[in-house]
């Protein structure tokens, strides 16, 4: 029938998505090289890292020119910065390092300088930034400053500064590198005991796993631990992505024969799995990253845009288009159907707002449902979630039935390509409140069965 029409970021009021614009604080990427691609991607919120060491190279003197340029340009484009206050500053003894895992500030002089820097940053940008993040993956690194106590302490002193200067700011804490339940439990307990946990809007985690659906249970365990201490603080997946090619030494998930196809599948499955579990989702990252220092020394090719070692953008990858398709369809005009479960009997008693579905196979599938808040028309996301995304499309032809479905004219959408297909009338039928679909092609990339009114193509 056509192709999903992209939505500009400034056409979307709000959504579940964040796009990563990280490492600009260490000059591993170039904002000006990719800025024109941000608005057409359809994601309004961008994740930025502030960079203490880049801003304060002489004690007590701040050079904000580099960060002013990025934030002012982003806000002018209608984007919303989520700004991280992070990494240490080696000009201070005990000031920690300026890269991932290099240690937190811990001397009295360094912590005072950190407080001064955080204060100056919030004062400078509070009229343009209302979401902040404290540190990045503080649990990583071979140093004495990566314990829950140290990371909690830097979170506490920093959120106190933010809330004093900007009481209504939303603040993200922890930024946990890989899900470590014991570490998280200790961190939450410290914040709760200090009466600080409730000040956080969300707790962020990063979890790079080869099968993007493999950590769903672990995320729910992390959520349960958080709820034990505070039921209102939310989880946010703050950084995740897959490479577009193989390569040791290129960062997380390097030990697999990735291609642009499997990257696109990974990113969209992770996004839609997060959406299906009510977790905000950040895509890492907008462009490839040319690391020149720290633990990674090669080009990290997790970008949606291909770049070279000079940080020049060469072209969008397939994943750019696939993420663009997700962003154009799934905004906050849709509400998740929370009561949706598989059943093997069509004629069962089902509550009015619940959905039951049969899937015509005993293979593992991810199935999530959404309803438009105004029209009440529905969308279902479906993909094979059994393994790591493959570099071929091994399609299975399956039948589905949805009890309490709601479609006027259903269509099929392939998220990876953005193509929209008619579902012939001979392939679907309605029996009372049951919608039956025959010969639906399913593979390890997401497809949609959606009412046509919800897809602009």
Automatic annotation (TrEMBL):
GO terms for molecular function: hydrolase activity, hydrolyzing O-glycosyl compounds. SUPFAM superfamilies: (Trans)glycosidases. InterPro entries: GH (IPR017853), Glycosyl_Hydrolase_39 (IPR051923). Signal peptide: none annotated. It comes from the Bacteria. This is Glycosyl hydrolases family 39.
